[in-house]
Amino acid sequence: MICTAGAAAAETPFTPWPRWATEVGFGAHVSQIGARSEGGIDGVVALAYGTGRLQLFGEATLGTAGFDNTATTPALDTSIDGSRTWLGGGVRWLARQLFIERELLVEMALHAQTGIERYTFSDGSKPIRPDVAVGVGVDIRTPKLHQLTTRIEVRIVFTPNDTTAIACRGTCDQRASTTPGLDMGITFAW
Amino acid sequence: MVKLGLLALLLAAAVAHADPTIDRRVGWDFAVGELSDKTLAFGLGLDLDQRVAGEWFVTAAYHWRWTERTLTEMTSAPGSAQAIDLGVRRRLTSSHRFDPLTFFVDGEAGIGAELATDDSGSRTVPEAYAGLRFGYQLTEPHSSTPQRGFDFDFAARAIAIDHGPAGHAIGGMFVMTMAWDD
């Protein structure tokens, strides 16, 4: 399907990414640490370099993180709150592009990224783990007006399976070597 | 039989190219729903729709799903699933009143297979779906664009998953799709 997405590009040239772009926004993530799900809200800043249909980017996020309560009575509350910092980078590729009235671009971009995330939880634990992600998004861009862009992206994130103390508050899951998660964001670039 | 099949394909291709409207679209979707009474799902998908004849399209999709299966009132088990679906989609009605926007309602149905992994292990199970899509298509008449149109639609879907000995489950999903037209 991704190959098909590339095939149609040969006829009319794509409007390239801007050479440099700054990006801010917010997002949300959900992931798995051990046998428990963890999630939070993130703030996003990024800097991107574009060349043709490829765009390289470096990105940092800072946000909340937390485990839901897994106890069956409020007196045994096991919820844990904290923060999450992510630093990484990746590449974005223009797969589809519609140029409306030669003023507005509506684009589909595929992306892959990798980075390191660090959690700080209220019980004192600070797990650190790398991740790899692939995703897709839609950009609405004004090429004649400072390359203003509104971007919505969703990605699937893979992290190594975690068996540290905090992760094993639930039942540790040793079946897979990686655990998946979902990450999405709405950002504005110029 | 092979000759008949080739002839049918040729006719379908001829019909598709005789029609000035969009023949193929590629896009992605975000889905939220309940796969059963105990499993919530959030999904990301890649979609390919190809017109085969008239108002009929064949569809292929890959979906990745984050799942949360309820264990007790306050606890749940996270998991994930991957699914491949093949289906058909037919335009039921459309309006060109707000040209270049075309508002439409499509009916769709399909079958597929899901590989699910959660606290009870991994399993491959068949699935089937049927639903309605409501959306609009924006077409661009100028030739200076790589794609000719953009579709945005919402689908309300009933999805049936066979969990084997655990029984069948019928759930519902809302799917938001953005697709680019060739």
Describe this structure in words.
The complex is a heterodimer of chains A (190) and B (182). By secondary structure, chain A is mainly beta. Chain A has an 8-stranded antiparallel barrel. Chain A is elongated, with a radius of gyration of 19 Å. Helices cover 3% and strands 65% of the residues of chain A. Chain B is mainly β. Chain B is 9% helix and 70% strand. In chain B, strands 1-2-3-4-5-6-7-8 form an 8-stranded antiparallel barrel.
Attribute tags:
heterodimer; A: 190 residues; mainly beta; 8-stranded antiparallel β-barrel; 1 helix; 8 strands; B: 182 residues; 8-stranded antiparallel beta barrel
Offer a concise description of the structure.
The complex is a heterodimer of chains A (190) and B (182). Chain A is mainly beta and 190 residues long.
Low-pLDDT residue spans of chain B: 6-20
Mean pLDDT of chain B: 85
Q: What is the radius of gyration of chain A?
A: 19 Å
Sheet/helix structural class of chain A: mainly beta
Number of helices of chain A: 1
State the major sheet of chain A: 8 strands, antiparallel, barrel
Distance between the termini of chain A: 30 Å
* Spatial strand arrangement across the major sheet of chain B: 1-2-3-4-5-6-7-8
Greatest interface and its residue counts? A-B, 44 and 41 residues
User: Helical residue percent of chain A?
Assistant: under 10%
Strand content of chain A: over 45%
Q: Would you report the number of β strands of chain B?
A: 8
The whole-angstrom Rg of chain B is: 18 Å
